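Input/output pair, single chain:
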Amino acid sequence: MDYLALVLRWIHLLSAITLVGGSLFAFLVLRPWLASLPEEQRQQVHQQLRTRWATVVFVGIALLLVTGLVNIMRINAQLPPELKKTYHPLLGIKVLVALGVFFLASALAGKSAAFQGLRAHWARTLGVVVLLGVLVVLISGYLRTLRDGAAEAAPQPAAVNRPAATRAADC
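Output:
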């Protein structure tokens, strides 16, 4: 068993679950709740949450970038050539969409004055983050299905296809 691949996959998946799930929670639960608060209290709570969420966002993005890059290098070496012409363009789209998510999530969580406009419309920007994050998850699932299908279609070693009686004679 390739334990490094397993640990990298766990880190990648848990980071994605945390960021996309946290964004979904913020959009579906937190946003409506904040809207029910008086303006001053809403601003105070929003600022406290943003500060805490920023650490999660930046650590999550770093983990996704590192594990994603390593996973791409490892997976690419194992892809059959006929799958690469479909897999690579979809992977490129996934990476570009993910970079868009990273940018918007960083802008929402950060303090830069340059992105104050995005933070001023945080609910709309958060909605875009959620939609793009879900798109990344969907593309990822499709890519995994392509890889699994290619692995199932790959010819098996001769020893696996031989009857058990002849394999036993090899021992």
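The first helix runs from residue 3 to 35. The chain has a mean pLDDT of 90.
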